[in-house]
Amino acid sequence: MKTSLSIIGIIVLIFVVVLLYKKHKAKKKAEEEAKLKAEEEAEQTVEEEAKKKVEEEAKRKAEKEAEQKAEEEAKRKAEEERNRIIKELQKRGVEFDMANHVVPMGEIVSYFRTLGLKQGEDIPFITNTEKKNTFVKQIGNIQFPTVKPNLMMLFVGVYNEKENELKHLKIIEAPDFDITIKDVIKKDGYAILK
Questions:
Q1: How far apart are alpha carbons 191 and 179 in whole angstroms?
Q2: pLDDT band at residue 76 using 50, 70 and 90 as cut-offs
Q3: How far apart are CA 167 and CA 67, in angstroms?
Q4: Predicted structure pTM score
Q5: Greatest CA separation found in the chain?
Q6: What is the number of other CB atoms lying within 10 angstroms of the CB of residue 23?
Q7: What angle do the packed helices 179-186 and 105-114 form, to 10 degrees?
């Protein structure tokens, strides 16, 4: 009987050891599965964050492209409007000159000499964009082109005092005008030439 109890004790002990071993193995397996799951979730989070960053970058790029496209369209429309205004002015006899150099006073004087002005009747003048309406109101209610960036605009014309009309008008757009021109119109924004 003692032997049977000893055998039963050994069997119970083996059974307990096997159960403990299985429990330990199950715990290890659960820990490994939890670790793998945590790593997968971390990878997923990293992938989701990377995907989110890529989507945000794509959205920013699309917004920037749309903004650039809108700016280009606005510039194109402004240029079209400017060209329309210039053509309208040219139909009314206004000359438009786009110089790519610093315009000297001598060039303005030469222009006036080509017009065959009558002394005592024709009054040659130059004016900046702010004072143009003082001289060009006789043209009627029309628009003038806006000055392009980094350029300056000068109105050169002839007013006939006897007929009270503007005989000639030339708009010159240039990167700059020489110091003589600037000095002449500095005080009042215009100058009547002799």
A1: 14
A2: very high
A3: 45
A4: 0.63
A5: 152
A6: 10
A7: 80
Query: How far apart, in whole angstroms, are the C-alpha atoms of residue 181 and residue 103?
Result: 9
Q: In this structure, is the dihedral angle defined by the CA atoms of residues 151, 128, 142 and 93, taken in order, positive or negative?
A: negative
> Binning pLDDT at 50, 70 and 90, where does residue 163 land?
confident
Residues with Cβ within 8 Å of residue 164, at least 6 apart in sequence? 138
Measured CA to CA, the distance from residue 176 to residue 102 in angstroms comes to: 5
State pLDDT tens for residues 81-140: 988 888 888 888 889 899 999 999 999 999 999 998 888 889 898 988 776 666 565 555
- Which run of H or of E encompasses 127? strand 122-127
Nearest-5° Cα angle at 147, 141 to 150: 170
pLDDT value at 10 more than 80: no
Of 135, 194, 142, 192, the closest CA to residue 169 belongs to 135
Q: Is the pLDDT of residue 147 over 60?
A: yes
